Amino acid sequence: MPDNVMVVDHPLVAHKLTLLRAAATPTGDFRRLVREISLLMGYEVLRDLPTEPVHIETPLEPMTARQVSGKKLCFISILRAGNGILDGMVDLVPSARIGHVGLYRDPLSHEPIEYYFKVPDDMDQRLTVVVDPMLATGHSAAAAVTRLKRAGAGAIKFVCLIAAPEGIAALHAAHPDVPVYTAAIDRQLDEHAYIRPGLGDAGDRLFGTK
Ligand code: URA
Q: Where does uracil bind (predicted)?
């Protein structure tokens, strides 16, 4: 496993992921759990944000405290399932900018085709956190990162909930500079490119579609 793949190992993440995987978990709970896990993962993903001293007055006395400095953030949701994680990340950093990347898989070539791309125009000045719950084949993730780099993004992190070994390998082969944060690495992809054991179709379960 590449050493820039981080499995966020926390009892609460493991517990909530188990609930998420269970087929009986209804849509509303699924959505809430994705948001909660994203909050917990965001805590790890943003651990190295730089801080700077700031002078404030508490009700009792002046003090020098710390605030996040410098690096501006941009969250990029890979549509549509990425929006579930995005909600949790934006709860953590309400001032972050947000971009969206839409890709579909060409039925013949199986290559990802872009149908939507909207990101801030100063990507070169931002830490970019790309979110998509399932890192399955890695093709969409790699295509999204390629496109973001073309738009100027430099420092990019990728966050998912469940990764397949195949997806990690593909993303790492295309973009070895991009660290991957995941709550779990599952066994394998099946012949339909679903992650096993996985949690099913993350978009359908988030939005209650089928
Ligand atoms: N996308 C999903 O939603 N689930 C998988 O298992 C693989 C890709």
A: 195, 200-202
